Amino acid sequence: MIVCPECRGERKIRTFGVVCIPGFGASDPSGHIWCPLCDATGSISESRMRLFKLGQNIREYRERTLSLGLREAAEKWGTTPSKLTAIESGLAESEWRPPGFPKHLEIQPPVKEGWVVNGCDDRRLLHDDEQFRKRALEALYIAIDPGGGRMMSQLERNEMFRLIGLVDELSFSLVGGVPTAHERFT
Q: How many angstroms separate the CA atoms of 42 and 31, rounded?
């Protein structure tokens, strides 16, 4: 678990005036409410931290790059201001991105050092104590992109990258990281 970046482990955050957030109640007389990001526990999971960082990047993209206000952006992107606020605050449950969101602002999963998916010949083994999971993940990578980045896939380019992104997320949740590369020539 990671210390909550919103309340810094204090479990409460300061508000401006008296506010009421559904599920968290009204602020106390000193202007504090229970932290909605960590559910007043003081810590968050790695996946929640990813959502929080992604939300910050979406807000930065909206404000600095596009110079859009919250309501204007929500209307342009086909969502509501409250949903966009939840996304930008890290409170959304999915990693939604606005249309045209730059690749360099994506939050990349941490890389698990020493793990490489090898798509050459029959040498497709991963040597680690998590062999079964890694072999299953490797099979998914190879099925999506049999050429290991040489565009030999039968899938359209965008679909291939979307599926690799999904497998990267699955990989992160199952073994704690993604390969350092998608192929090693041996």
A: 18
